[in-house]
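Example 3.
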Amino acid sequence: GDSVTQMEGPVTLSEEAFLTINCTYTATGYPSLFWYVQYPGEGLQLLLKATKADDKGSNKGFEATYRKETTSFHLEKGSVQVSDSAVYFCALTIQGAQKLVFGQGTRLTINP
Amino acid sequence: NAGVTQTPKFQVLKTGQSMTLQCAQDMNHEYMSWYRQDPGMGLRLIHYSVGAGITDQGEVPNGYNVSRSTTEDFPLRLLSAAPSQTSVYFCASSFMNTEAFFGQGTRLTVV
């Protein structure tokens, strides 16, 4: 079946550090890939997405590239801020089906 | 716009009690879904609906019922609560093949 695997957390970094959160997927069709972010006490918000191979999604300084050859969609940011502290979820949907399949989430804490 | 509104935000139930978690959206989305979030397991799909009058089961449907009488509303019913249903519940809505919008969640504790 379809699945998403994220790097184990929690992750703690200092402000201005480089961030990578790994995400790999298994899918039977042609998935769209997403990163959602959950700030404390809130619901999930879409951070970025990519709908086909080699697409790069970007938002708020975060980037992720859809790599079909490695079935990956790693999240990166060059310089994190304290306000980036949140839980990050990688997810996929299969074309024609709206059901989201989530990874287990990675809790990120940024220290000043 | 209100977006996706869930009520209540917090609830404590005793084992065996029933309750309904409410979800409403004002974006005219045809697709609505319920997820539960448990530590270390991400979000898992409980039930979903592709339009009024149409519902289907997700990954973890046991113990939950849904109905979709209108485009706007998609309530989730727990008929006989169990401690294993202690979780945070999220409702989401979207147009087909577009991003999902999530409510703020309902934290449910079953004692």
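The two ends of chain A are 41 Å apart (CA to CA). Chain A touches chain B through 24 residues (CB under 8 Å).
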